[in-house]
Amino acid sequence: MSGTRAKVGAHSPMGGLTRHVWSTMSAQSYRSQLERKRQQRVDAEKKAGDYRIKESKKRSGAAAARSAATRTKSSSTAVSKLREADRLEREAAIAANEANRWQARAASFSKEEASLMDRLVRAEASERADAERRRVRERQLAERRDFAARAALEQRLVNTEQVLTSVTRHLREPRNETLRVLILGASSEGDLRVGREQKRIRAAVESALHRDQIQLDVRPAATTADLLDGMTRFRPHVVHFSGHGGRDLIVFEEERDEQHAGQPVTATAFLAALEATDDPPLLVLLNACDSADQAASLVGAGVPFAIGMTDEIDDGDAINYAAQFYAALANGQSIQSAHLSGQAALQLAGLTGAELPTLVAAEGVDAAQTWLVRATA
Q1: Contact at 8 Å (CB) between 313 and 289?
Q2: Exposed (0-12), middle (13-18) or buried (19+): which is 80, by Cβ within 10 Å?
Q3: What is the per-residue pLDDT across 31-81, written as a single tens digit (0 to 9) for each?
Q4: pTM to 2 decimals?
Q5: Which residues lie across from 306 on neighbouring strands?
Q6: Across all residues in the chain, what is the average pLDDT?
Q7: FRET partner for 342 with CA separation of 20 to 30 A, picked from 72, 118, 175, 335?
Q8: At what angle are helices 27-71 and 75-158 packed, to 10 degrees?
Q9: Could you report the per-residue pLDDT of 159-209, keeping only the tens digit for each?
Q10: Which candidate, 366, 283, 377, 373, places its Cα nearest to that of 332?
Q11: Nearest by Cα to 329 from 370, 373, 292
Q12: b/e for 151-187, b at 16 or more Cβ within 10 A?
């Protein structure tokens, strides 16, 4: 399907299945079509002009023949001239019809030319916007890499080995219990394939090496009541949300059967729900557009690990990333490796959103040294 997991009201008018929809024809294609249409119009106008000239000549000839018929004293010559005049008038009428036909075609080509010009302008604007988005994403990716490198170096310098060991050991060694994953999906307007995402995650976990070590609580059409109930009754180690979002909110569904605008939940309210339990989650994954800021806020508020998206993410990209992420976790990979595996799945599939999912870790913990699933003895 075509949609992005952007904040409600931010959908693109183009059609595709991003969690936004983009133009399906390049500016170069429109330029080629526009050039062909221009040539067709010019050719049609030339033919219309040629037929107008022919019509004018035939009518002049007819007028001359009629004039000659009136001046001659020979009746046979007069009859011949009148016949010639009639013939020339008929040929003039045919030329006039052809001129009108080609003029109409030229007018039609002109309208199509104007339409193509409008589409070209929009396509060029879209391509410029796409290029700017890519430039911004590349810059953000470079900044994140630089930040991560600096943070890693500073952490090694500031923290002693004893502090690092004690903190990472606490997170690194899972309890002797099944990893519980609460999966919340919301698409109140029916424009996102969150059901497909949940199905792919379940299939990925069920086919993994340590599938018996993961328990899923999957809640489609999730409401805020599902969030609170899942947190207090299921006590998840991982909370996964898929749906629309933004820098400071995510959108749950209301308890309604028809399509609707949904229930926006602020980042502050969402954090309050996560903290309203004796067993807060270890990892939160926000599979929604522009959710990286929220992920960073969650980590800043005490969640050890969080994953968010730095921009609008295509629906298919979001699904592929999530399925591979949980497949890697269930195969005994660390949080860092599972994240990298999800990104690699997008690159291997030729998709464009591999740089969007962003993993954030709290100070003093290492995602590369934290496993949520381990093989049982």
Answers
A1: yes
A2: middle
A3: 999 999 999 999 999 999 999 999 999 999 999 999 998 999 898 998 999
A4: 0.58
A5: 284, 360
A6: 87
A7: 175
A8: 170
A9: 534 433 444 434 434 456 899 999 999 999 999 999 999 999 999 999 999
A10: 373
A11: 373
A12: eeeeeeeeeeeeebeebbeebbebeeeebbbbbbbbb
Rounded distance, CA 216 to CA 39, Å? 62
Tell me the two tokens of residue 288.
């929604």
Return the amino acid letter for 280: P
d(CA 143, CA 146) in angstroms, rounded, equals 5
pLDDT digits (tens, 9 = 90+) for 65-78: 999 989 998 989 98
Residues 6+ apart with CB under 8 A from 349: 320
In angstroms, what CA-CA distances link 282 with 95, 143, 344?
84, 26, 23
Largest CA distance in the chain: 130
191 vs 46: CA distance, rounded Å: 50
Of 186, 182, 198, give the one whose Cα is nearest residue 319: 198
DSSP code, position 261:
-
For residues 14-39, give the mean pLDDT: 68
The CATH architecture annotation of domain 159-369 reads 3-Layer(aba) Sandwich (3.40)
Crossing angle of helices 267-275 and 292-300, in 10° steps, is 40
